[in-house]
From TrEMBL:
InterPro entries: P-loop_NTPase, Sigma_54_int. GO terms for biological process: regulation of DNA-templated transcription. This is Magnesium chelatase, subunit ChlI. The keyword tRNA processing does not apply. Residues 178-237 form the Sigma-54 factor interaction domain. One of its GO terms (molecular function) is ATP binding. It comes from the Bacteria. Keywords: Ligase. Pfam families: Sigma54_activat. Residues 1-22 are annotated as: Disordered. Coiled coil: none annotated.
Length: 478
């Protein structure tokens, strides 16, 4: 389930005018939401600044399309499989609003003092004139979000008659008996509908006027409320969800449809995992070396491309994030049990991701019962690919020579780094190995992680034998 982001702390400094007269005297200019977004986006583009912070892998594909849609003043739909960052991208749009905007103090609809839209707002300005109270709203409070579910009602989105207001003595013909829904309450802001096809078609109809005529209708009332907002929606491909569709008139009213995708480059996949995974735990020193993150990223991509996996469902970026966090947790568990000072993830921690991630993947029906076998195979392939990419051409003869006369080395997820290094002894070329893996400050944990990665790579390339028994792994000569 997707929830709205928490509002950041609002700065103490805000614009000074507190009345309509002061606002006019200060030269404030009314600017529609889409004009705000356009102007701020153009300023960022001209300055070479990032317009969508935290978005990885879309620079040359998705983001230019989004920029064009925003510059054109279009409402838009982001269409793509699960876990492609659609909601994350939508939430960054808030940063393109002006930091502060004036509103009529007490307005349910965030009405601009220059242009009230409700009967209440018009009455406030008529009664108080230049003394009409003005409040200031931060851009973090100008974002609304609704996860579409089949039980979402028109009242949730648009509004409904409030029986309490009727009981207070107002007549049913009075527009002020209406309790406004999420969309009008986000007036002069950005509203997002996640998983739009999940809305019942009759509910989608209620958004038609919002997108085109910019007014709303509630139980026979025709409220001419010229809403000022940017409407953005996300959706999964219809051929996968089968839970509904975006009705044609609604699709026609969105100005742009932008297709998202999973990271195209391995480097972007790794960067995304590093950015999103919770690998820095308070009070616990844990290190996940870059070569293991590359294995996780390659594993994710292989699962995503596997013919045994249902390609319509996709393999979310959350799959890779959860895998990296599981690897880190395995290292922390080992350190807690063995008393290691620093938890460093190693190859022996990788198999833990298979059981943990099985539920995140939907397999083809023919693969029923073989899910773990398929995932373990793909993990071995990912490890072998990372070994070849990172250590191709590295002289590992010194390490391999340790096993030429029948010696063996035992490791496992509960074998501490110091014990593994002691079993291997002095390894010629260790410095070169660490250098190829980008290890700048040598420590027992990082040395053990590098050596275990090399051992596994040699085994996967049929240069060492390997036996696994009861959670223990024994490497030896062939």
């Amino acid at each position: 389930m997707t929830s709205a982001p928490a509002s950041p702390p609002v700065p103490a400094s805000r614009p000074a005018p507190t009345t309509l007269g002061e606002l006019r005297a200060g030269g404030h200019v009314l600017k529609p939401v889409k004009a705000e977004v356009r102007d701020n986006l153009l300023a960022r583009l001209a300055a070479g600044e990032t317009a969508f912070p935290g978005i990885v892998g879309f620079d040359d594909t998705v983001l230019p399309q989004v920029e064009r849609a925003l510059l054109a003043g279009h409402d838009l739909v982001l269409l793509g499989e699960r876990g492609q960052g659609k909601t994350r991208l939508i939430r960054t749009l808030v940063g393109l609003l002006d930091e502060w905007t004036p509103v009529l103090a007490g307005s349910e609809l965030n009405e601009h003092p220059y242009a009230p839209i409700s009967p209440w707002g018009h009455r406030q300005v008529a009664d108080h004139g230049d003394a009409t109270p003005v409040a200031w709203r931060h851009r973090s409070d100008r974002y609304g979000e609704k996860l579409a579910t089949p039980d979402t009602s028109v009242g949730d989105l648009i509004g409904d008659v409030d029986p309490i207001k009727v009981a207070e003595g107002r007549t049913l013909g009075d527009p002020e008996t209406v309790h406004y829904g999420l969309v009008p309450r986000t007036n002069r802001g950005i509203f997002s509908v996640n998983e739009l096809p999940d809305l019942a078609e009759r509910i989608q109809v209620s958004l038609l006027n919002v997108l085109e005529e910019r007014d709303i209708q509630v139980r026979g009332y025709t409220l001419r409320l010229p809403l000022d907002l940017l409407l953005v929606a996300s959706a999964n491909p219809e051929d996968y969800t089968n839970r509904g569709r975006i009705i044609t008139p609604l699709k026609d009213r969105f100005g742009a449809e932008v297709r998202t995708h999973y990271p195209l480059e391995l480097a972007d996949e790794v960067r995304l995992v590093r950015q999103e995974a919770q690998l820095d735990w308070p009070g616990t020193k844990v290190v996940v070396p870059d070569h293991l993150l590359q294995v996780v990223a390659r594993y994710t991509r292989l699962v995503r491309e596997s013919p045994q996996v249902d390609q319509r469902s996709g393999v979310s970026a959350r799959f890779a994030v959860a895998a990296a966090e599981t690897v880190a947790a395995s290292a922390v568990r080992r350190a807690a049990i063995t008393g290691e000072a620093q938890a460093v993830a190693r190859v022996c921690d990788l198999p833990s991701v298979v059981e943990a991630s099985r539920g995140k993947v939907e397999f083809e029906a023919a693969e029923e019962g073989r899910e773990l076998e398929v995932l373990h195979h793909l993990l071995r392939r990912a490890t072998a690919d990372a070994f070849r990419a990172l250590l191709a051409g590295t002289d590992l003869s010194g390490l391999q020579g340790r096993f030429e006369e029948g010696a063996t080395v035992e490791t496992g997820d509960l074998v501490p780094a110091g014990e593994l290094l002691g079993r291997l002894g002095t390894v010629p070329g260790l410095g070169a190995l660490l250098g190829r893996l980008g290890v700048e400050q040598e420590s027992p944990g990082l040395a053990a992680a590098a050596l275990e990665f090399a051992l596994e790579g040699l085994h996967l390339n049929r240069r060492l034998a390997k036996d696994e028994v009861a959670g223990r792994t024994v490497y030896g000569g062939r």
